[in-house]
Amino acid sequence: MYIDFRKRFMFLVLSLLINATGHALTISTNLGSAVWTASAVNINNCFSINSLSLVIFLEGLAVNCLVSLIDKKRKVSKF
Q1: By CB count within 10 A, which of 25, 37, 68, 78 is most buried?
Q2: Could you tell me if residue 60 is left (phi over 0), alpha (psi between -120 and 50 degrees) or otherwise beta?
Q3: What are the transmembrane regions (predicted)?
Q4: Per-residue confidence at 10, pLDDT binned at 50, 70, 90?
């Protein structure tokens, strides 16, 4: 069945909003929605960093750098 681009895009936006809301609720209750977000909450609490989004960003950057070192293929497109 053919679904036009606008409808597909709206479903994508809706799913991203629902997903982000779920992640935000689990992070705000200090449960963590996945291993990386739970560890970011713990790092944020341990080092008293004011910005959780900064911790999540830096953690994602560190994981990407580590994966690129392990993979030994440093392609910007994969980053």
Answers
A1: 37
A2: alpha
A3: 48-70
A4: very high
**What kind and span of H or E run contains 48?**
none
Q: Which long-range contacts (CB under 8 A, 24 or more apart) does 48-55 make?
A: 52/27
The residue type of 53 is S
Q: How far is CA 6 from CA 20, 66, 68, in A?
A: 21, 37, 35
Kindly report the length of the chain. Answer: 79
Question: Whole-model pTM?
Answer: 0.57
Residues 27-75: tens digit of each pLDDT: 778 776 677 778 888 888 898 888 888 888 898 888 888 888 888 766 6
Q: What is the DSSP letter of 77?
A: T
